[in-house]
Amino acid sequence: MKILSAKVIVTCPGRNFVTLKIETDQGIYGIGDATLNGRELAVKSYLEDHIIPCLIGRDASRIEDTWQYLYRGGYWRRGPVTMTAIAAVDMALWDIKGKAANLPVYQLLGGKSREGVMVYGHANGRDHAEALDAVGHYIDMGYKAIRVQSGVPGLDKAYGVGKGNMYYEPADKGLPDEEIWDTPLYLRHTPDLFEKVRVKYGSDHHLLHDCHHRLKPIEAAQLGKALEPFKLFWMEDATPAENQEAFKLIRQHTTTPLAVGEIMSSIWDCKDLIQNQLIDYIRTTVVHAGGITHLRRIADLASLYQVQTGCHGATDLSPVSMATALNFNMWVPNFGIQEYMRHTPETDAVFPHGYHFDKGYLMLPDAPGLGVDIDEAAALKFPYERAYLPTCRLRDGTVWNW
Fold first, then answer.
1. Residue 397: how many other CB atoms lie within 10 Å
2. Catalytic site residue 212?
3. Cβ neighbour number for residue 204 with a 10 Å cutoff
4. Residue 291: CB atoms within 10 Å
5. Which of the following is catalytic: 71, 106, 120, 159?
6. C-alpha torsion angle, residues 313, 335, 289, 278 (rounded to 10)
7. What is the per-residue burial (b if ≥16 Cβ within 10 Å, else e) of 322-346?
8. Inter-axis angle of helices 183-201 and 217-227, to 10 degrees?
9. What is the rounded CA–CA span in Å between residue 307 and residue 118?
10. Keywords for this entry (predicted)?
11. Average pLDDT of the segment spanning 357-369
């Protein structure tokens, strides 16, 4: 089965998505997500100008060989643009293989390890009262795990606090927005937030929190220790992980579970964190870490050290990525949890899919391939709009980690 053609589809049903569609000489096609938030057109160009010409005529069934060809053959390895482009090809080829076999992709990986995929939702508010109400809303919807974020008193904006109740999109149209950050204020208010949640709702639900790379290692250690009484499922992205050794200091001072990895693009980015047991959950995602082929290598390494998966699942990952992640999650033996940020109705219409939420879990139908498609006519109704994630500064004007 040869690759006959491939094209890139860019659409913006509320936010930008990049999708690769690969067609074969047997009439079977597959799709893959190639979205890189704020750098979408860089991946589009990488695919159109450098990868697609090399795909035409290749055997669509040789997924591993194609992955190695694109990774090793490109010489300039890794990085978010390269690995996102490779991931799109990888997803599309797994989709084709599943359709050709008339089986869901998870069956090709080894079959189900579970019946459903536990997910967490995002409860947020401009202040503690709003955040507590949002937690109650997610509990009423049946969620077993909830990420809690709140505005910080004294700051106009805070990470994780969206403009609507269910659909959070931080990227802004036009040029990047600038936000002001104050770590001491954040450290003072966050433990109080989780104390209020536990007092009001008890201990039956998993609670998660995202620091979003904004803390220095000793500050993350202080926060993790302060949150210990509230038994968090995890504290995410406590500090930038370029220096993996920084997590040693955090680990020495707190037993709050640690999760990191959504911006990591390869096994080499997280190898030391895993093998030195400095984290409890690895959050690398199928779209930014080279697709299923590479993500399962990361998961296999993690399993040796009792580190579980907790894949990133924000709205800048299209339903194509979510369907792929769910196939992966159905199989992966060391699954932990899956982030689930709901897409808008417009996005769901562009990307019809069969997965659905049920009592705290995402359920995946037995559709061949990935179980997701793209409606190209609907996609054309939403042309690309330039957008950027925000930037962040401290009160004195110093650029900080958003």
1. 9
2. yes
3. 7
4. 29
5. 159
6. 100
7. bbbbbbbbbbbebbbbbbbbebbee
8. 20
9. 17
10. Carbohydrate metabolism, Lyase, Magnesium, Metal-binding
11. 97
- The CA-to-CA distance between both ends of the chain, in Å, stands at 45
* pLDDT reading at 194 higher than 70: yes
Q: Which of 209, 212, 213, 312 is catalytic?
A: 212
Q: Is residue 316 a contact partner of residue 334, using CB atoms and an 8 Å limit?
A: no
How confident is the model over 115-138, as a mean pLDDT?
Answer: 97
Cα 146 to Cα 374: distance, rounded to the nearest angstrom: 30
Beta-strand relationship, 206-210 and 178-181: unpaired
CA dihedral 108, 114, 116, 117 (to 10 degrees): -80
29 classed as catalytic:
no
Residues 307-354: tens digit of each pLDDT? 999 999 999 999 999 999 999 999 999 999 999 999 999 999 999 999
Q: Which amino acid is at 64?
A: E
Q: Which of 240, 247, 293 is nearest to 264 (CA)?
A: 240
Exposure class string for 352-380: b at 16+ Cβ within 10 A, else e: ebebebeebbbebeebbbbbbbbeeebbe
* Amino acid occupying residue 103: L
Which residues, 6 or more positions from 334, have their beta carbon under 8 angstroms from its beta carbon?
A: 299, 302, 303, 306, 307, 308, 309
Q: What percent of the chain has pLDDT over 70?
A: 99
Strand partners, 353: 372
Tell me the per-residue pLDDT of 147-166, one tens digit each, with 9 for 90 and over. 999 999 889 888 888 766 66
Predicted confidence at residue 164, as pLDDT, reads: 62
